[in-house]
Amino acid sequence: xxxxxxxxxxxxxxxxxxxxxxxxxxxxxxxxxxxxxxxxxxxxxxxxxxxxxxxxxxxxxxxxxxxxxxxxxxxxxxxxxxxxxxxxxxxxxxxxxxxxxxxxxxxxxxxxxxxxxxxxxxxxxxxxxxxxxxxxxxxxxxxxxxxxxxxxxxxxxxxxxxxxxxxxxxxxxxxxxxxxxxxxxxxxxxxxxxxxxxxxxxxxxxxxxxxxxxxxxxxxxxxxxxxxxxxxxxxxxxxxxxxxxxxxxxxxxxxxxxxxxxxxxxxxxxxxxxxxxxxxxxxxxxxxxxxxxxxxxxxxxxxxxxxxxxxxxxxxxxxxxxxxxxxxxxxxxxxxxxxxxxxxxxxxxxxxxxxxxxxxxxxxxx
Length: 366
Known about the structure:
The chain has 366 residues and is mainly alpha-helical. The chain has one domain (2-361). It has helices at 21-51, 76-90, 96-122, 130-155, 182-200, 208-225, 228-234, 245-263, 272-289, 293-299, 301-320, 330-336, 341-361; strands at 165-167, 175-177. The chain has a two-stranded antiparallel ribbon. The chain is globular, with a radius of gyration of 20 Å.
C-alpha cells in the first residue's frame, strides 16, 4: 500500500527507501510487532470472556498441563492481524507470490479458527472433521500453487518448464518437471507444512520460535532467489518476484515476537489451530514459490520430526498394538520422561536453529 510513495522520491528523497525490499522487510517486522503489542491485550480479554473455560486440555496428556485449564485459545488472530496488517502496508500487493501466500495464510487461518471454535464450544479436543479439513486445505493450497506456477512460467525463469519443476538442493541444474502434477505436489507441501506446525504447537512457545527461525531463513532465501545477481553468484534458481516475500516473512517474525510476549510461560493465550495452520501454510507457500520445497524439510526439520513421531506412533499401534513413544507428538514423550516444559521447549529451539543453519548451507553447497 505504501509502495506508491516511491513515486514521490523525486521531490522527497526519503521516500526512495521504499524501493528497497530490505527496508520494507524491517518496517514490516516492526509494524507487525507493534500491532500485536497494541491489540494483544484487548484480543486476549475478549477471547477470555467469550470462551469461558478456554481451550480443552487432553485427558491423557501430561499432568502438568491441567493447570493450564481456562487459558483462551485462538491467539492466532493476533498473529494474523499483525502479518496481514503489516503486509498490506509494506508489501507489493500486485505481486502474485505475495497474494497467493496471503490467500493460503488467511484460508488456513479460517479453517483453524473453525476448528478452534468447535473445540471451545463443545469443550472437546476433537474439532473439525479431519477429511473435510484436509480437503479444504488442499483446495486452497492447490489454487495458490497453480497461480505461483503460472507466474514462474510467464516469467520464463530458467526455461519454459521451470514453474512446474522441482529443484533439488546440492545440484545447480537438477530440475524434475512435473507438469500439471506440480499443483498436487505444491499443494501437498503446503498442506503438510501447515499440519506439521499444527502438531508441533503443544507447549508454550514451542511452535512460535521455530516458525520465526524458519521465516528468517526463508526470508534470506526469498531475497536471494528473487535477486538475479545473488542467485547467479550462489548458483541457485532465479525466481523473479519472490524477493517481495521477504517483506511478508519479516511481518511473520514481528508478529511472532509480539505473540511470544503473551505466550511466554505461563501463557496468557494459546496460538490454537488458527495460528499454527496459517503459519505453517505460509512457510510452505514460500517454499513452493522459491523452489526450495525440499530444503524446507531441512530448515523445518523440527516440524518433520514431530509429524513423523505421530505417524510412527499410529502405525506401530495399529500394526502391533504397541506404542513406540510414551505419547505423541514427541515433545509429550519427553515430558512423560520427566523433562520440564521449559527444558523441552528450549532444547527443541536449539534443534530448530541447528537445522535452519544446515538448510541455509545448501545455498552454497552446489
